[in-house]
User: Which sequence fits this backbone?
């Protein structure tokens, strides 16, 4: 009799844990699926297109770089859809041979906004003191690579820049 | 492993606590009669968990609330399922809590010494309804918005401090952002905190007095068959939880989650309906008017609450046998009966109301359109109803109704009818056969064109030629080329019309590019241009009235009509 009682209690214990565990596991599936939705999903998107930022004549060879805002014509952000939204900024300059260059202001180290020091005639990140030459090359500091160039084109006297986001803190340049 | 647990027990003494929970003696032995509390606990935990994960996506503001819920429903994988569990879970809680209370009443379990625990239970039921009421508004859709208005309006009828109370609840003079942040904070912080506190108290009082066995068991019998909570009772509890969960999942899948109406629109008219468990007070209001309405709306919940709380103090005899407590149970049954009857009447009334069903179907259509637009195009920053402005050709349709419709549509129009199929092959063929029909130039002074009398392939070729000018991408080039020959060689068309888009049309409009977006935009700007109607033009120029963008929107919409299905 004692044996029978023990078996019954043992069965009840196993069954209780099994049923309880099954409920928890089944409930966890949809809940975790929703929670992990943003992983690997492009939740924020904007058309990758050249954005008109200024007139070519505003850039003078040898002059200090100009900082320009780059705005998306449309930004899908989760549920919302907005027009004319700032995406980021770029430093624009014209080299001595007349070529227009654009660099993302996002520091390739950890993403702070890189500034321009007129005194030192170079780009300097205010966060961790990385320095970059006028052509974007890395000079000093913790950054592993130079400033990220952005695709730039000149069309009918207007400078157009395409904004691109890169992965940070890598020596190779990979799209984010 | 054992060493770690030993260490943990040494430092915390957890084993004693766990044993205390598991070894709780159940007089008379485990029974499925005792599963309701555990089933409720399970449903409550499920609400907490699903609620927390919904909060991961939900955004409480008038501009984002609906959009974020639509995002959960239609874009987060299984988001609809989690939201559906939360929605139906609320119903499950109300049902199980109702059964729990009913059992407590029938078994006389609220009698001394358990009066206080009964009161705590009644308060927890009130909290559940407060949860339901606040949660209903959060999606900021039509149903939630309009139904909740009714509830806060009732609060506003409270004597002496009605207005203040209403403003306190809804966060100001009107529904808006502050209403949502307030309802959200109440729903996710204040009510859960209160619920947890009452839950702990309920459990503590329950453990202090133990389960209430059935009234007809002798003391010896109860002692003889007594067994611990674990595992026999917990097994039954877990089985009950599994049943609750299975039913919830089943209902959720069957109904494809919870509904989400179109975004709240204060300018619309909408038939507000509460959740089924609040149908009774909703229906009750139909039978009262004026001051009586306020008295009934505010009084009924207070009276029912007071009666429930008073029950253990009125029904105080020591005998728990329901047969000997018929007056009390009868009163309770009567209240339940009235509530049930009102609920059924309300639902039956709606089901038989064809006009209501029609409005319901319309609302469902509108909801579907809003959700499609939100899914495909996103919701503009203004949020809510602004989602409708994302509809294809929205600007054009607005401009159309302001500037074009009065002449180009309806029975009182004065100009050619513009409708789906405009400039399609069939439309062109009809036009060429009868240009002076009322559908075309019949209502205008531009009635000098003779019907085209070509037959067979020659007619088809002319149609194709005109059709080709619209820039459609399914043009039969060979046939159109034949049409060009017919145009100049074997018909009179050329005598009035050019088709190069350059030569001024002295007698009839130049047909070059006719029906393309570019031509239509230019035409809307200046129908009296020498290419078209010249100084004879009856249609006003919209050069000043409409911007170039507006004209372009309209033109693109008219192009779109060519292949559109008639509405």
Assistant:
């Amino acid at each position: 009799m004692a044996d029978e009682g023990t078996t019954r209690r043992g069965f009840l214990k196993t069954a209780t844990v099994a049923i309880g565990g099954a409920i928890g596991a089944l409930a966890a599936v949809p809940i975790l699926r929703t929670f992990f939705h943003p992983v690997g999903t492009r939740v924020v998107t904007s058309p990758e297109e050249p954005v008109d930022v200024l007139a070519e004549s505003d850039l003078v060879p040898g002059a200090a770089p100009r900082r320009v805002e780059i705005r998306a014509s449309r930004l899908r952000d989760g549920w919302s859809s907005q027009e004319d939204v700032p995406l980021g900024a770029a430093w624009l300059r014209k080299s001595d041979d007349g070529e227009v260059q654009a660099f993302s202001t996002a520091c390739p180290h950890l993403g702070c906004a890189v500034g321009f020091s007129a005194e030192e005639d170079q780009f300097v990140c205010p966060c961790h003191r990385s320095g970059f030459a006028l052509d974007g090359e890395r000079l000093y500091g913790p950054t592993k690579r130079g400033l990220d160039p952005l695709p730039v084109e000149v069309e009918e006297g207007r400078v157009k820049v395409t904004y691109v986001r890169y992965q940070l803190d890598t020596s190779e340049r990979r799209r984010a | 492993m054992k060493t770690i647990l030993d260490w943990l027990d040494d430092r915390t003494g957890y084993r004693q606590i766990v044993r205390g929970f598991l070894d709780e003696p159940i007089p008379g032995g485990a029974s499925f009669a005792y599963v309701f509390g555990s089933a409720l606990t399970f449903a409550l935990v499920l609400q907490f968990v699903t609620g927390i994960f919904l909060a991961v996506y939900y955004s409480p503001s008038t501009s984002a609330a609906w959009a974020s819920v639509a995002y959960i429903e239609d874009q987060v994988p299984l988001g609809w399922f989690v939201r559906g569990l939360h929605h139906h879970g609320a119903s499950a809680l109300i049902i199980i809590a109702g059964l729990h209370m009913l059992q407590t009443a029938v078994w006389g379990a609220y009698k001394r010494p358990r009066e206080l625990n009964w009161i705590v239970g009644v308060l927890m039921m009130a909290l559940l309804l407060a949860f339901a009421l606040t949660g209903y508004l959060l999606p900021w859709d039509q149903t939630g918005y309009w139904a909740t208005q009714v509830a806060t309006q009732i609060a506003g009828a409270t004597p002496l401090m009605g207005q203040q109370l209403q403003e306190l609840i809804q966060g100001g003079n009107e529904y808006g952002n502050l209403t949502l942040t307030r309802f959200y904070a109440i729903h996710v912080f204040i009510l859960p905190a209160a619920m947890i506190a009452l839950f702990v108290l309920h459990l503590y009082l329950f453990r202090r007095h133990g389960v209430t066995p059935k009234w007809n068991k002798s003391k010896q019998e109860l002692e003889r068959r007594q067994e611990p909570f674990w595992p026999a009772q917990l097994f039954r509890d877990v089985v009950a939880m599994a049943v609750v969960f299975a039913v919830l999942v089943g209902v959720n899948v069957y109904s494809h989650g919870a509904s989400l109406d179109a975004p709240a629109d204060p300018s619309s008219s909408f038939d507000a309906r509460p959740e089924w468990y609040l149908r009774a007070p909703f229906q009750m209001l139909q039978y009262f008017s004026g001051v009586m309405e306020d008295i009934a709306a505010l009084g009924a919940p207070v009276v029912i609450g007071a009666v429930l709380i008073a029950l253990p103090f009125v029904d105080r005899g020591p005998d728990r046998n329901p047969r000997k407590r018929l007056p009390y149970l009868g009163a309770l049954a009567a209240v339940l009966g009235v509530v049930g009857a009102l609920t059924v009447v309300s639902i039956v009334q709606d089901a038989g109301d064809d006009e209501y069903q029609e409005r319901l179907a319309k609302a469902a259509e509108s909801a579907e359109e809003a959700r499609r637009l939100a899914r495909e195009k996103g919701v503009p920053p203004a949020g809510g109803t602004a989602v409708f402005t994302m509809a294809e050709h929205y600007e054009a349709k607005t401009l159309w109704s302001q500037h074009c419709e009065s002449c180009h549509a309806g029975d009182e129009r004065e100009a050619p009818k513009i409708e789906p199929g405009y400039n399609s092959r069939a439309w062109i063929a009809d036009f060429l056969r009868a240009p002076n029909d009322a559908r075309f130039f019949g209502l205008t002074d531009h009635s000098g064109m003779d019907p085209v009398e070509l037959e067979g392939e020659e007619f088809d070729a002319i149609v194709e030629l005109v059709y080709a000018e619209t820039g459609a991408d399914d043009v039969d080039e060979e046939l159109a080329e034949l049409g060009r020959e017919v145009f100049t060689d074997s018909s009179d068309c050329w005598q009035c019309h050019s088709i190069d888009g350059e030569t001024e049309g002295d007698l009839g409009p130049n047909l070059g590019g006719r029906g393309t977006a570019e031509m239509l935009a230019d035409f809307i700007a200046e129908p009296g241009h020498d290419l078209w109607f010249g100084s004879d033009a009856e249609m006003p120029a919209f050069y000043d009235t409409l911007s170039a963008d507006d004209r372009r929107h309209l033109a693109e919409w008219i192009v779109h009509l060519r292949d559109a299905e008639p509405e």
